[in-house]
Amino acid sequence: MPVPWLLLFFSLVLGSRPWVFSLEKLAGSHDDARCSQGLSCHLWDDVLCLPETIESPKDPVLVPTKLQTEVVLRCTEESNCVPCVRVTLHLTVQEPRKEDPDENGFREDAEPTLRPWPRNESLQAKVILSFQAYLSDRCVLVKVEVPAAMVQPGQNVGSLVFDCFKAPVGGEVRIWSYTQPPYQKELNHTQLLPDCIGPELQDSVRSCWGIEWSGVLPWFNVSAEGDAIQLVLDVSTEQNYILYLYWNQTRNFSTRFREVLTGPQNITLNQTDLVPCLCIQMWPNMHDAIRNSHCPFWEDSRAHKNLWSHSKLKLQFWGTTGLSWRVEAPCHLSAEIVLCWKPMNSEPCQPLPLPLPRQNVTVNKSQDLPLRTLHPNVCVQVWSRETLQIQECPQEDILGPLRDDVLLLETWGPQENRSFCAMETSGCTPLPSIAHTRAALLGKQLLQDLQSGQCVQLWNDTGILWACSLQKYTHERWVLVWLAFLLLAACILLLLLLNRGGMKGWLQFLKEDYRYGGASRPRRALLLYSPDHASFERLVGTLATALRQLHISVSVDLWHRRELSALGPLAWFHAQRRQALQEGGVVILLFSPGAVTLCQEWLQEVGVAQRPAPTADTFAASLSCVLPDFLEGRAAGCYVVACFEELLPPKGIPDLFQAVPVFSLPSQMPAFLKALLGAGKRRQDTLKAHATRVGQYLQPALEECLQLGSSSSL
To answer: How far apart are CA 610 and CA 527, in angstroms?
Structure first.
């Protein structure tokens, strides 16, 4: 292959790395600033890097509008050079903006003033160039003067070139530019410096002499297995290297780890240090060695997750009218700040219905919130990649608790006609409206409150945002609710008076219940059954409800579905059985055809229980504990057996369970209640009365089961 074609091939392959080509060499060791034709520049000594608050200009000003950088070589001799970053700024004359009397400074979207420029005066500006590299930073000031004849607002008047900022080989530097005093946001740019792999630096930079890049600096890889993240280092045993881990933060470097390596090693990274800006730097342990840097976690999902766990949103209040926010994070965040409204007694925070600019987050920098009046319901959110990451609301001791307010948005049409809408979970409801929402029903009253000055203005720009109180309307609503309740109670009392016999019976029932132990501690009972079908489950629920009215604390899986799902049927049964027996209670085995079938499947011919497969049926799961109690004679005093005689005759219950009292319901209901309540708890006449009422209470559910049994076998 001819030599020119070979050079062309390498230039195409390495085209993405501009420092592979020949770098311009500058003679001398002094900095220099020069301007384009017509402008005059004067370079001052280094200054402190102290950016000031943005000011509002009253006359046209000179501002930098574009920042460019390139790498050059500054040489004291032909072969004694150092890398250097040249900065080029394009300068534009900018008209002043109208000041906002209600805000500090000026608005970028404000209209320019028409104040004429004195033609006999030149325009002067102080331009600050700020440079930051690894463990070093520097700021210089350049005074630029524009002749009066060239002062034309909105026009580019020329450029400023600064030579140059000395930078480390293979490093990364960042350049900022702004005026003093600042009139607009700073410009910034990041420049990567070439390393010693290029022949230009190997021949000209002494720190690169003699370095064999194929074998001197070790390669390092990152391996991840599960939650463990390791840095694999192929270090030669013949040389020492320094490993340095750091957070590459904006304008700051936070050291996380530093160690001298003498051979191949695997280093486990701390999970709390794993963030996207975690970088690795290595260099031979010698004077003025070239440092090799690598930041491999920019796209790591775990690093981004850890970054948000390290990030905090802090709000700072200035009386009742000023609020600023600050996001503290170890790395730069690609996120936005959003204001939202948190209604009273509502969990989600709704974004404000305004064309508020979503401000990009600058970490570790305080920024003001654009509100006229602070409100406890206005919260601040940080969004990243369409996901809510952080939300912070004012504390109650600062602005008070959440208020029962509604937001009204006032806008103007093309003919200056005003329109209003209320912010609700379903959207912004126009007022007045026929919609069936809370704000729509109170639409006329809210508009009257707004016109009478009872609402608070939160925002005034392209629309006006008002916060109007609903507290007085809430009180009126509760008054209506109480009136309705009293009217309903009066109707119920009237019906009871018309039916004196029924009322008298229930009063007697409650009186007897209190006299014979109703006020004492209820006895606990665990009710076990086989869920044959839905009608039978309703019958069991009706029985359990009736028993609870008789001062018996009944536990049945129908009422503990969530706990049953969390623990499992067997664990739930053991916990309930242990509690019932420890408190002197009883376990009720309510037999049905399905329960008999399950027991027969569990029993072998010799009467030994089989170990079942796991099941979601509490009755089936409990047989592994219940059957051994009966087989080994431990059931007496702890169990009671019952069945509904119209669904299953008592003789259908297996003989094994005849060792404890067996009750046929509802005919033996008094004896069944006496066994549950214990001796001496009720008089005989009282038990009969209770049994009669429980039987009447069970009759509808029992008839439903009988109808199902007549149409299909249970």
So the answer is: 23
